[in-house]
Amino acid sequence: MKDLLAALDLNALPELSLGTAALLILGVCAVLVIVRGVFRILFGSLVLCASGFAAYLTWKNTPLMTQDGSLHWVSFVPAAIVGIVVLLLLRWIMRFLSKPFSRSEGGETAQRSPLRWVVTLLFSLVPTSVLWVGGATFLRSIGSVAEIQHFADGDSATDRSTFFAALKSSIDKAIPEDWFKKIDPLSDDARVTLAKLIALGDSAPPPKAIAVMEEPQIRALIEHDPQLRTLAKEKRYADILRDPRLDNVVADPDLSAMLAGLKL
């Protein structure tokens, strides 16, 4: 230890004035406060997303309260209750984990001003929106593959593919499809429809799809591409959907409009 101290050249260390040291300490404290705030916003956003997802699942599995559907809005009440309960429960768990002994110490909870609440809410909306869009895009992508599988399987479709296909349909009704075109081009209606026709393999297409399949470029891709036909036989629907050979057909405005208008 003495040899180590003797080897240190203390004169080579830069001299720090009291003001510089104070600025360094202030900077470190500011960074810690910012990091703490970012983590609080992130976890708060996750709590909001979890409560919203719980409310959605409740709404999805709540039957209509009346036979004629005149009081369809009543089905939102259980979803709202579940969402609020999950939100409060997760907030309590987070508060307990971050300050487990704050109540027993008798300390008073700091009161936030209305302005601070507004600023916190505005900053929380940004990551929450990003998480929601990312989650919706992810679920929509899964739903596109499930939609292809559901179409190819026909009457023997599994509950899983039926659920995710219905989930994608619900997302499309709630959020405009144009929002997803740039961030999720693989789930475009024209591309999904083309992938459905390819996934049929040797099965007969539905009558309303015959006119579309008469297009030479579409027919060549569906019937005369051995690799795509192999993917269809192996039921690798996700690989069909993202296959680059579909790009040329989807890039054609006329063919894309024709495929998008074909509802299978």
Automatic annotation (TrEMBL):
Source species of the chain: Luteolibacter luteus
Superkingdom in the source lineage: Bacteria
The keyword Transmembrane is assigned to this record: yes
Organism lineage: Bacteria, Pseudomonadati, Verrucomicrobiota, Verrucomicrobiia, Verrucomicrobiales
Membrane-spanning residues: 12-34, 41-59, 71-94, 115-139
Keyword Transmembrane helix listed: yes
Name of the protein in its database record: CvpA family protein
Keywords: Membrane, Transmembrane, Transmembrane helix
